[in-house]
Specification:
The chain is 6% helix and 56% strand. With 826 residues, it is mainly beta. The strands form 7 sheets. The protein has a 24-stranded antiparallel beta barrel. A 7-stranded mixed β-sheet has the order 4-3-2-1-7-6-5. Strands 39, 42, 44, 46, 49 and 52 form a 6-stranded mixed β-sheet that branches.
C-alpha cells in the first residue's frame, strides 16, 4: 500500500536526521520532541506527527509487540493497533489490554494517578520505540510469594446446587440436596451451607440442617474465621486425627493458609477401591451424609475421587445391588495441600467456641459443650513432617499425632495415631513406593470405638497391598491383596492390553478374583474370571463393549456370564452421552442404561438398572448447577468447577449462529450464547478473560471488547456487556472543501476508530446495522456521515466511499459553538 511506504520512508528519514549527537539520547522527553519538531521542515513534520507511525512497543523493558501509533505535538500519544508480536514474552491478552488502555490520547512522561498501574510513557524518535513502565517494573526480577488482595475488594454471590437421587423399586429412595452459598463484601468471604438427605436403608428419617455459616478473611499465610463451622483443623499439610470432636461449633479460628500463595496445587495421594460381583451402585457418605453416588461394574475398581472435596477425611462406602446393601467399608481420602514454603516450618490451626448443631433436626452428643483445640504441623526437614493435635470438649481430652515421612525419592510413609477419652483410639498408615514402571502401596487401618448414647462399640481392622506394573507401552497389570477382620482375605488380578489399528482403538481386559463374601449373611467366597473387549471406532463415534466370565452365583454355585454394551457421544445437543448394556447369567437378563446431559445452565447424569435376579429396577439422578449474582445481573451455569469467583458476560449480537468462546488466563474456557453467561474465574489471582470468534465464515464480525481483566475476592462476581456485530470494512479519503487531504484526523464509529494518513486515506471496520462515521476534534464530533451500505462500490465485506468532504476550520476557531454537520460522500 502506498500509504505504508510513505510512512516507512518518513520513519527512516526521521531516524537518520535525529541521530546527530546533540539530539541522540536513550530516552527522549516530550520537550525534546517539541524542540525537534520546530527544527524539522514543515513537509517532513507532516509525515511524523498526527499520522499513523509504525513503532516498537516495550513493556517494562521487554518486547510487547510492533504496532501503529499517533504522535501529537501536544505531548500525547495514541496507540491504534498491534501488527506483530513474534517471540514476545507477553500474551495476546496483555496486548489487548494495553491497546484498550492507550486507545485514547495519553500524555507522555510520568503519570501519578493513571489507571492500569501505569507509571510513565516514553517515546524515542531515534529508534521509534514506545516504552511503557508500570508499577510491576519496581519489583524487578524478584518473585512475589503472596498475591495481593483486590484493592477495592469485590461483591457478589455464588450459589452451588447439588441434587442426588437414587430409587429402588419396591423400597424407599435415597436423596440428597445441598446448597452452598459463597458471597463477598470487600475482602471478606461469607459461607453458608445447607443439606437435606435421606438414606434408603431401614427406616431412617430425613435429615436437614445448616452445615456452615461463617465469614473468613485471608491474610498472607494465615486466615481468620468467625461463625458456625466444623471444629476440625484447617490449613495443615496432614491433619492428625483426634477421634471425637468433629461436631460443628460457634466460635473463632485462626489458621495457616496457602490461599494467597502465588502457585499451589492439590494432588491426590491414594486411591479408593470397591468390589462388586455384578453391576451395582456405590454410595459415598461423609459424616453419614450422601455426597456422591456412582455406577460400578463387576470386579475390583477405583472410585472417581476427583469429584470429592479437597482435604483429608474419612468416607463410608456402601455398595448397593438389587436394592440390597452388599458391603459397607470405610476409606480415607488424602487430598492435602503441599508444603508451600520450607522456610516457614510451622503450620497451625487454633480454635475455640461452643459445640452445637445450628438449625438441625439431629442432636449432638456434645451439644452446648465448650471446646478449645489446636493442631500443628512442623517440618523437621525437607523429608519429614510431624503433627500434633489436641482438643478439650465435654470435659474430655482428645490427642493425636501424625507423621509424613519421605524415605527417599520414591517412597513415602503416612501414619496417624489418635486417642480420645470419649470415643476410643485408632491407627492408620500407608506406605507408598514408586518405581520406573509401577508403584506399590501398603495400607493399614485399625480403630476401636467406645459405646456412646448414639452408637455401639465396635472394632475394625483392615489392611491392603496393591502393586501396579506397566509391562510395556500397551500392557499393564495390577495385583491387590486385602484383608478385613471378620471377612477374610481377598485377591484381585488385573491385566490390560491396548492396541490401535488405523482409527480404531481397542482394549482387552482380563481379571481374576478370589474375595471374601460381600455380605455377613453369606458364608461362601466369591471367585471368578472375566475377559472383556472394548472397541472405539474413530475419535467421536460409538464404543462397543463385550465380556465373558465365570463367577460365584448368589446361591454359591458357579455361573457363566456374558455382557455386551454400547455408548456414543452426542454432538450439538444438550445430551452429551448415551449408553446401554445387557448381561446374562443364571438368573436371566440384566439391563443398564445411562446418559449425561449438559446445557448452559445445568449438568447431570441419569442411569437405570434392571436386575437379572428378580427384575427389580433401580435408578439414579445427579444434577448440579451454579448461580451467580452481581449488582448488574444474575445468571446460571452448568460449570461446577469454578475457582471461587465469576464473571457475568451479557452478550448481544446480530450474527446468526455465532460461536464465541471466552478463554480465562487460568485455563478454563466457556462457550458464550446471546444473553447472560457465566464464566468461572480464579479468586485472588489477577487474570484476564479473552474472547475469540470460532465459527468459520464469521470473520466479518467484530467485538466491542476482546479482553477483560479481573481481580476478585473469593465469592466476588464481576459484570461486563459484550457486543458482537456484523461489520464491513470502509475505505475512503477525508478531504476539506477544496479537495485537499486532511491528515491526522480521528475517524470513528460504533466498532472501531482510526487516524487518517498524510494523504487523507483511512480504513476501518464499521457495523452494518449502524453505517455512520464521525470525525472528532478535541473529543467532539465536527463531521458526521451517513453511509449507504448498498452502494455499488461495496464488494463482499469492503465498502469504497471515495472522498468525504469535511470543513474543520470553523470548528478549530470556535469548537464550543460548532454543531455536527452531515455530509454526503462524493
Amino acid at each position: 500500500m502506498s500509504a505504508c511506504s510513505v510512512t516507512s520512508l518518513a520513519i527512516f528519514i526521521s531516524c537518520t536526521a535525529l541521530s546527530i549527537p546533540a539530539l541522540a539520547q536513550h530516552q527522549q522527553t516530550i520537550g525534546t520532541l517539541k524542540q525537534q519538531a520546530e527544527q524539522l521542515p514543515e513537509d517532513f513534520a507532516a509525515h511524523l506527527f498526527n499520522v499513523p507511525l509504525a513503532i516498537r512497543v516495550e513493556l517494562n523493558g521487554n518486547y510487547l509487540g510492533d504496532g501503529l501509533l499517533v504522535l501529537t505535538l501536544d505531548e500525547q500519544i495514541q496507540l491504534l493497533a498491534f501488527s506483530d508480536a513474534y517471540d514476545s514474552p507477553y500474551t495476546d491478552s496483555d496486548r489487548e489490554f494495553w491497546l484498550a488502555a492507550l486507545t485514547e490520547k495519553t500524555a507522555l512522561g510520568q503519570c501519578l494517578n493513571c489507571k492500569s498501574g501505569l507509571l510513565a510513557l516514553e517515546y524515542s524518535l531515534q529508534d521509534a520505540r514506545l516504552s511503557i513502565v508500570t508499577k510491576d517494573a519496581e519489583q524487578g526480577s524478584a518473585t512475589t510469594k503472596y498475591q495481593a488482595l483486590p484493592n477495592a475488594g469485590s461483591s457478589g454471590l455464588i450459589m452451588h446446587n447439588q441434587l442426588n437421587l437414587m430409587n429402588v423399586e419396591g423400597a424407599s429412595s435415597s436423596r440428597y440436596y445441598s446448597m452452598e452459598l459463597m458471597g463477598s463484601t470487600g475482602n471478606w468471604t461469607h459461607y453458608t451451607g445447607t443439606q437435606v438427605s435421606r438414606s434408603g436403608l431401614g427406616n431412617e428419617s430425613t435429615y436437614y440442617g445448616l452445615s456452615q455459616l461463617y465469614s473468613q478473611y485471608e491474610l498472607e499465610g494465615k486466615a481468620l474465621r468467625a461463625g458456625y463451622f466444623a471444629s476440625t483443623a484447617q490449613g495443615l499439610n496432614l491433619t492428625p486425627g483426634r477421634g471425637a470432636g468433629g461436631d460443628n461449633m460457634l466460635g473463632l479460628m485462626l489458621s495457616s493458609s496457602d490461599t494467597l500463595v502465588a502457585d499451589h496445587n492439590y494432588p491426590s495421594t491414594t486411591a479408593v477401591y470397591v468390589t462388586a460381583d455384578r453391576p451395582a451402585i456405590v454410595e459415598i457418605h461423609r459424616n453419614n451424609q450422601l455426597i456422591n453416588s456412582q455406577q460400578v461394574q463387576a470386579g475390583l475398581q477405583t472410585i472417581d475421587t476427583k469429584v470429592l472435596p479437597t482435604g483429608i477425611y474419612a468416607v463410608q462406602l456402601r455398595v448397593v445391588q438389587d436394592g440390597q446393601l452388599l458391603s459397607e467399608s470405610e476409606a480415607m481420602i488424602y487430598k492435602p495441600t503441599v508444603w508451600q514454603d520450607p522456610s516457614e516450618p510451622l503450620r497451625y490451626s487454633l480454635f475455640a467456641g461452643r459445640q452445637t448443631q445450628l438449625f438441625n433436626n439431629t442432636e449432638s452428643a456434645f451439644e452446648g459443650s465448650a471446646t478449645v483445640g489446636a493442631a500443628l504441623n512442623y517440618l523437621l526437614n525437607p523429608n519429614t513432617v510431624v503433627g500434633l493435635s489436641g482438643q478439650y470438649s465435654d470435659q474430655a481430652i482428645s490427642l493425636g499425632t501424625s507423621l509424613d515421612l519421605n524415605l527417599g525419592e520414591r517412597s513415602k510413609l503416612l501414619a496417624n495415631l489418635y486417642n480420645s477419652q470419649n470415643s476410643g483410639y485408632g491407627l492408620d498408615g500407608q506406605f507408598i513406593y514408586s518405581f520406573d514402571s509401577g508403584s506399590l502401596m501398603l495400607s493399614q487401618q485399625f480403630n476401636k470405638t467406645k459405646a456412646t448414647a448414639l452408637s455401639l462399640a465396635r472394632t475394625q481392622r483392615s489392611s491392603a497391598l496393591s502393586w501396579h506394573q506397566r509391562i510395556s507401552a500397551s500392557q499393564s497389570g495390577s495385583v491387590r491383596l486385602s484383608h478385613q477382620q471378620g471377612l477374610g482375605t481377598g485377591v484381585d488380578l488385573n491385566w490390560q492390553y491396548h492396541q490401535q489399528n488405523f482409527d480404531t482403538n481397542s482394549s482387552w481386559r482380563f481379571t481374576a478374583f478370589n474375595r471374601p463374601a460381600l455380605s455377613g449373611t453369606v458364608a461362601y467366597r466369591n471367585t471368578g474370571v472375566e475377559l472383556s473387549l472394548n472397541i472405539n471406532f474413530g475419535k467421536n463415534t460409538s464404543q462397543y463393549y463385550a465380556a465373558l466370565g465365570n463367577r460365584t452365583s448368589r446361591d454359591g454355585s458357579k455361573e457363566n456370564t456374558a455382557e455386551a454394551g454400547w455408548s456414543t457421544q452426542v454432538e450439538n445437543s444438550s445430551i452429551q452421552h448415551i449408553g446401554a448394556s445387557a448381561s446374562v447369567d443364571n438368573y436371566g437378563i440384566g439391563l443398564t442404561a445411562n446418559s449425561s446431559l449438559k446445557n448452559q445452565y445445568l449438568y447431570g447424569d441419569v442411569y437405570m438398572t434392571r436386575s437379572s435376579y428378580d427384575g427389580t429396577f433401580s435408578s439414579g439422578l445427579n444434577l448440579s448447577s451454579t448461580i451467580a449474582a452481581s449488582t448488574e445481573g444474575m445468571t446460571a451455569s452448568s460449570n461446577s468447577s469454578y475457582e471461587g469467583a465469576s464473571l457475568i458476560v451479557e452478550l448481544e449480537s446480530d450474527v446468526e449462529q455465532l460461536k464465541l468462546r471466552a478463554h480465562d488466563s487460568a485455563g478454563q474456557s466457556v462457550m458464550l450464547a446471546p444473553g447472560m453467561n457465566l464464566v468461572p474465574v480464579k479468586a485472588y489471582s489477577p487474570g484476564t478473560v479473552s474472547f475469540d470468534i470460532e465459527q468459520q465464515g464469521s470473520e466479518y464480525a467484530s467485538l466491542s471488547q476482546s479482553v477483560k481483566r479481573y481481580h476478585l475476592n473469593k465469592g466476588g462476581v464481576d459484570y461486563m456487556k459484550l457486543s458482537a456485530f456484523k461489520t464491513v470494512t470502509v475505505a475512503g479519503r477525508l478531504v476539506d472543501q477544496q479537495g485537499k487531504p486532511l491528515s491526522g484526523q480521528h475517524v470513528l464509529n460504533h466498532s472501531s476508530r482510526t487516524v487518517t494518513e498524510a494523504s487523507g486515506f483511512f480504513t476501518l471496520a464499521m457495523r452494518q446495522s449502524s453505517p455512520t462515521l464521525d470525525v472528532l476534534q478535541q473529543g467532539e464530533s465536527i463531521c458526521h456521515f451517513e453511509l449507504d451500505t448498498s452502494l455499488e462500490q461495496k464488494q463482499q465485506d469492503l465498502l469504497f466511499v471515495g472522498d468525504l468532504r469535511c470543513d474543520t476550520r470553523v470548528s478549530q476557531a470556535e469548537p464550543q459553538q460548532q454543531t455536527p454537520t452531515t455530509f454526503a460522500p462524493n
